[in-house]
Q: What sequence folds into this?
């Protein structure tokens, strides 16, 4: 009998609107995640590649989720990954509603029908110290060229409302503000064009990642910022490079609804894992 210890590690690849994730289920197999391993996994040429990495563990609710960025840093929230994992857990359990815990806090997910999944991302953080910002100021118009809005959704966001989001060179624009001194924990950066009372076109630069095809927490932050500015109502359609999300800022939190995709299952080899240590 072969008694060698299996040191391989199963993973799943998922995406929401092209916002892609590697998901590790640590409920059934211990995962010793480190910044170095997360960064190597995020390498699209030497690893698997992802916008965020998610680790599922046993939690007080149906599961606990921890998120990592492609640069090896922790992400406090990841809306699209939460929706993808919620769909996976609902398929696994047969439930149509879930209670998930994250660094952000308690999140609630439900089957929205038609293959869509909804997650309540919680109440937005609107005070400067909660986002956080480096000093006290009006979060509805920051003292930055363009007067962006700051919003917290478990991670910080900086939203610029522009005439044409397509015309902004996001590869240069995003990193300039990700590292702005007003954001001590760095920030996600959005450029958004309001095209109607319930319609926003948005593109995103994610901290620790770069340009992504979509971002759930960014979509929530943009919808909240637009409603606070009086540019839209509290229920909007957000069109991203990767597709559409529907955002509804309700009394109980910001609900996000959209499609998910479980792409593949795979196994990380012992050789790869040894190279990461």
A:
């Amino acid at each position: 009998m072969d008694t060698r210890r299996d040191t391989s590690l199963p993973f799943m690849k998922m995406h929401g609107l092209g916002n892609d994730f590697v998901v590790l289920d640590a409920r059934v197999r211990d995962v010793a995640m480190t910044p170095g391993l997360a960064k190597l996994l995020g390498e699209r040429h030497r690893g698997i590649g992802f916008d965020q990495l998610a680790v599922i563990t046993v939690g007080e609710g149906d599961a606990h989720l921890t998120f990592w960025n492609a640069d090896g840093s922790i992400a406090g929230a990841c809306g699209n990954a939460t929706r993808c994992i919620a769909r996976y857990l609902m398929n696994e359990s047969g439930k149509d509603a879930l209670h998930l815990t994250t660094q952000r806090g308690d999140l609630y997910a439900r089957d929205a029908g038609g293959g869509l999944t909804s997650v309540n991302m919680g109440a937005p953080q609107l005070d400067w110290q909660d986002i956080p910002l480096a000093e006290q100021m009006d979060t509805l118009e920051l003292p930055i060229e363009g007067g962006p809005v700051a919003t917290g959704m478990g991670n910080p966001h900086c939203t610029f409302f522009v005439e044409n989001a397509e015309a902004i060179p996001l590869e240069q624009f995003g990193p300039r503000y990700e590292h702005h001194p007003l954001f001590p924990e760095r920030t996600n950066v959005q450029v958004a064009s309001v095209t109607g009372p319930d319609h926003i076109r948005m593109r995103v630069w994610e901290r620790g990642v770069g340009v992504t095809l979509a971002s759930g927490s960014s979509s929530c932050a943009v919808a909240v910022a637009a409603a606070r500015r009086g540019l839209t109502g509290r229920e909007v359609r957000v069109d991203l490079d990767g597709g559409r999300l529907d955002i509804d800022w309700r009394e109980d939190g910001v609900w996000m609804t959209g499609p998910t995709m479980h792409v593949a299952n795979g196994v990380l080899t012992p050789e790869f894992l040894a190279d990461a240590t």
In short: The two ends are 29 Å apart (CA to CA). The helical segments are 35-42, 79-93, 170-178, 216-229, 270-275. The mean pLDDT is 94.
